[in-house]
Structure formats: structure tokens, C-alpha cells
Amino acid sequence: MSSWVLFLTVFLACTVEAVEALTIILAAGTSRHWGSALQGTGAALVALAATVAVLGPAVSLIPINALRLVVGALLLVFGLQWLRKAVMRGSGYKALHDETAAFAEEVEAARAAATGGRGAVRDWYAFTLSFKGTFLEGLEVAFIVVTFGNNQKNVPVAALGALAAVVLVAAVGIAVRAPLAKVPENTMKFVVGTMLTAFGVFWATEGTGAHWPGSDTSLLALVPAVALIALGYTAVLRRSNPAVKNSVGTPAGAPVEGSLT
């Protein structure tokens, strides 16, 4: 895998996670207390750094075949979950993910929660909400960086892709102070789910001791194959969805649920 492919894969995957974390932090800050929300975010980043510092070197000690088998299986779990959601949304069986709606739900829950602080934290709810959101999404980012980086023996490029995604999303979030609703998250999840699934199949197979024809270049066929299969399922499910069939007569310009964008 070239450095650019590694960078782009990690960048796209981490952008999705960063957008979801940003939505939670914004909800905690705008509806409760910005200082406490930022304290929670900072504490989560420290906890993440400690977790990666402990687990990162341990991963590198695992034999490469065993590592690829385990990581390949985990990537298949993550990738197929993302791909399934994208297919269900694209076929109209599942509502499209809406960051604005998610933001509104988080704000409503935050405003309804009890007030009060602990120690140096003025608003404990805002602190814990930001901490949990940042830590959980950050764990997925760390997993992507460590697994992709170690498998390709290029952790710096994987880390750079993650850092670029986080910095970009944070900069835009600070500038607009609103959830990034215009980010095509559903399409990104389809792309990332396709890539994670393809890499999962590739690495799990390599982990068993088998070898792909052409080594890494076989991904050039594997990734499009997974994408075409997913698009095929999407098309078949759309045709069988009564809601999509009934939308055939919808006036031009009216929204039709079930687009990947």
C-alpha cells in the first residue's frame, strides 16, 4: 500500500469519528458550559494518550501473521457495520444520519440534566459528556492508526492522516461553532466501510498464511469489488422498498429518503 493510500484511508475514517465527537462537544459547550466541556475534552485526550502509550508498543510485539489475522477480523467487524448502515440508508430502509438532528438531541438532553460541579469542574455533566464523546470516538481513531500503521509498518503516515483529520474538523468547528451538517458523512461512511472491509479481507487472508496475487496491488481489484457488491445490494433493496417505490411520483426537488449523500 502506498503512503498516500494509507494516509487517505486513515484521514477519511478519522474525519467521520472527529465529526461525531465535535457534535457532542459542541452540544455540551453551547447548552451547558464551555469551560467544563473543554476540560472534559482535554482529560479525554490525556487518557487516550496514556492508553496508546501502553497498548501501542504491545501491538508491535505480536507476530505479523497473528496481528494481520486479528486486525483483519476486527476491520471486517467495523467495516461491515459501517457498510451495512450505508446500504440500509442508501436503500431507504434506515434514516440518513443527520448531525443537526443529533446535535439537537444532545442539546435537549444536556439542558434537561441536573446542574452542579465537582472540584475545579463547574459543570460536571458538560465535563462527562465531552469526556465520553471524545474518548470513545478517539479510541476508534487510535485503533485505526495503530492497526493500519503497524500492518503497513508506517505508523507516522497513519498518525499524520489522523492528525490532519482532527485538526481540519476542529478548525472548521471552531470557525462555525455549529455541527458540520454539510459534511457528506453517509457517503464517507460508505467509502470508509468499503475500504475497511476490503483491507479486513486482505489482511485476514494474509494472516492465515495465504498470499494474494500481486501482493498489495490486489487491493486495486478488491476495493472496487467490495464497493460494487455493496452498491448492488443497495440497488436491489431500493427496488424492493415500498417507500422508495411510492416516491416515484414525488414532485421534482422534493426530498427522497435513501440517498448515500
From TrEMBL:
Transmembrane domains' residue ranges: 37-59, 66-83, 157-176, 188-205, 217-237
Alphabetically ordered keywords of this record: Membrane, Transmembrane, Transmembrane helix
Keyword presence, Membrane: yes
Superkingdom as given in the UniProt entry: Bacteria
Name of protein: COG4280 domain-containing protein
Species the sequence originates in: Streptacidiphilus cavernicola
